[in-house]
Automatic annotation (TrEMBL):
InterPro entries: HgmA_C (IPR046451), Homogentis_dOase (IPR005708), RmlC-like_jellyroll (IPR014710), RmlC_Cupin_sf (IPR011051)
Spans annotated as Disordered: 1-21
Taxonomic source organism: Nocardioides deserti
Protein's name according to its UniProt entry: Homogentisate 1,2-dioxygenase
Occurrences of domain Homogentisate 1,2-dioxygenase C-terminal (ranges): 297-387
Length: 391
């Protein structure tokens, strides 16, 4: 983010003494990306943010993956996947590679563990439910249709007001609006399908008292993604104020303005975010192509450089009728396999003026492998749905 915000009590001049009414010094923390060379924020703590009293191994959920071999398109039914109720520790890994991991969880209404992802930013899509995410920057409310963007190493916990279905995209780096949507100074441009008014960050500090507070940290080692349980001397939610361009925020798909055309538009017009070697797009209710001979459903296409993951969220996805795919489904169409609509849907789409569908797509530029959650909810018949038979 390059959209400046100031929340709570901050001094007039950065890196200068900042004291409370009793004269106690606040502790300034710079939270920044790319070694002081990219977006950052300054946070002012009541306690010392580095003060920990214990560090021990925490074992995250199973992070192992299995190659998509032999190569095949896949259909995963997430609504059949059973999870625990903690929004953090009970996520089940569905798909992953060295750049991004996609997991899924259905929460209860109890708060999650305190958590910090030190591997990369998290982009969590809220399929259903509502609540708040408490963070070191303040509280971020969420509702169905929100993307919740959590910068790398942001201490937070999920507090659902109702059971929530969370589709978690965990990056191995930073997630941001596509560069082509931004001016050279970071403002969202007029051709972008959303603007700064649509991004909702914390509006006031969240101050919580406490000592010996456990925070689960996911981080990297030479052995891959691992976990550590840190115990903080003081509660990490002790920030009286902060300012800068790095902070958590939400963006709701209702505020995305679909780009349409005379003939079928390619997926990049639906892009909402980008990460290291992957992109996030959303396909939403919209008017479709208006050429008199237009074919509204997608043409067959080969992802020669990427794997395509589509998560079907709402509505009736026209191109997939007859495939077995429904709400809560994921389709994985890997590089090396041409894919597209079910044959019967092409003629059926002719003359259609509007699609009522919602889906979230992640395209990756390295092959995706199947996590244990993906293997547990796979439809074994999907690969043969275009031919209608198998050998």
């Amino acid at each position: 983010m390059a959209y400046y915000r100031s929340v709570g009590d901050v001094p007039r001049t950065r890196h200068t003494q900042h004291r409370d009414p009793e004269g106690r010094l606040r502790f300034e923390e710079l939270m920044g990306e790319e070694g002081f060379s990219s977006d950052s924020s300054l946070l002012y703590h009541r306690g010392v943010p580095s003060a920990i009293v214990a560090s021990e191994v925490w074992e995250p959920a199973d992070q192992r993956t299995a190659p998509n071999h032999p190569l095949a398109p896949r259909h995963l039914r997430l609504h059949d996947l059973r999870t625990g109720s903690d929004a953090v520790v009970d996520r089940r890994l569905v798909l992953g590679n060295a750049d991004v991991r996609i997991s899924y969880v259905v929460t209860g209404t109890e708060p999650s563990a305190y958590y910090r992802d030190a591997v990369g930013d998290e982009c969590v899509f809220v399929e259903a439910g509502s609540g708040v995410v408490e963070t070191v920057f303040g509280v971020v409310p969420y509702r169905a249709g929100d993307y919740v963007l959590l910068p790398r190493a942001t201490t937070h916990r999920w507090v659902p007001a109702e059971p929530s279905r969370l589709y978690c995209v965990e990056a191995n780096g930073h997630v941001a609006p596509p560069k082509r949507y931004l001016s050279r100074y970071g403002q969202l441009l007029e051709h972008a399908p959303y603007c700064e008014r649509d991004l909702h960050g914390p509006t006031e500090p969240l101050l919580v008292d406490g000592t010996d507070v456990e925070v689960l940290v996911k981080h990297r080692t030479s052995a891959g993604v691992v976990g550590t349980r840190l115990v903080h001397d003081m509660h990490p939610f002790d920030v009286v104020g902060w300012d800068g361009c790095l902070y958590p925020y939400t963006f709701n798909i209702e505020d995305f303005m679909p780009i349409t055309g005379k003939v079928h538009q390619p997926p990049p017009v639906h892009q909402v975010f980008e990460g290291p070697r992957f992109v996030v797009c959303n396909f939403l209710p919209r008017k479709v192509d208006y050429h008199p001979l237009a074919v509204p459903v997608p043409y067959y296409h080969s992802n020669v450089d990427s794997d395509e993951v589509m998560f079907y969220v709402a509505g009736d996805y026209e191109a997939r009728k007859g495939s077995g795919i429904g709400l809560g489904s994921i389709s994985l169409h890997p590089g090396g396999h041409a894919h597209g609509p079910q044959p019967s849907t092409i003629e059926a789409s002719l003359g259609v003026e509007r699609f009522e569908e919602s889906a979230v797509m992640v395209d990756t530029f390295a092959p995706l492998e199947l996590g244990e959650g993906g293997l547990a909810c796979e439809d074994p018949d999907y690969a043969w749905s275009w031919a209608g038979r198998r050998l």
